Request: fold
Amino acid sequence: MAAEMLSYLDRNSPIHRLTGATKLLCFLMWSAAAMLTYDTRILLAMFIGSLVLFKLSRIRVQEVSFVLILILLFLMINNIAIYLFSPQEGVNIYGTSHQLVHLVGRYNMTLEQLFYQFNITLKYFTVIPAALLFIVTTNPSEFAASLNRIGVSYRISFAVAIALRYIPDIQRDFQTIAQAQQARGLDMSRKETLGRRVKNTASIVVPLIFSSLDRIEVISNAMELRGFGKNNKRTWYSARPFSVGDFIAMAGVAVLLAVTLIVTFYDGNRFYNPFLAGV
Reply:
């Protein structure tokens, strides 16, 4: 459901049992490994690993399908933009040119360009599942406690927890305002033209902003009245100690990052080049 988009989904899985700090550190190391390398072999292995982790989390694709569709749409636009602005990037990187189709001018389709953009797509498919898992499997309160445990100020930790909790609140407010506007005769169905629907949807933004500001003021006043931030330390109801599984997970992803850096930079080039054999 849209109301549950990017909100915490409670499941009994190995991923959920990890502490929030562990998932954050693992996500950062995983993302660093995926972003630093263009070695297709590593990216394919990480992509398969991300699918396995997604399966272990017991999160259904339908529960994050809307976000996945938006990301895939952005990925398509990104790939089109890469080709339009730099159609010979793959040729420049790999040093060879295997032309498949000539279009017009400098625009032609080469194996090198396809391989380069395939790697770009793999990067998205590697990081996206990890990012979604981090968001939907992490309890905001427990995550804040974990951040504070590893040395992050509890003020910052609490702000992060509030931000994560605010995602479903914004969605609920949007749905409520949209239903109220439709009750007043504002049509946002497919019967209207796309431009009209966008204009009608934009009319929801202003009430949503004001309701968000009201909510922020209420929360800030409540925190101020309770003396939030007066002391240097605080206790956490949702705090959990690190378990063996946390250390195994962090060690495993750290090893993956180390192997990725070694394999990627051992010859001084970030790009795996399968076209050298044909030169």
Observations:
- The first helix runs from residue 14 to 17.
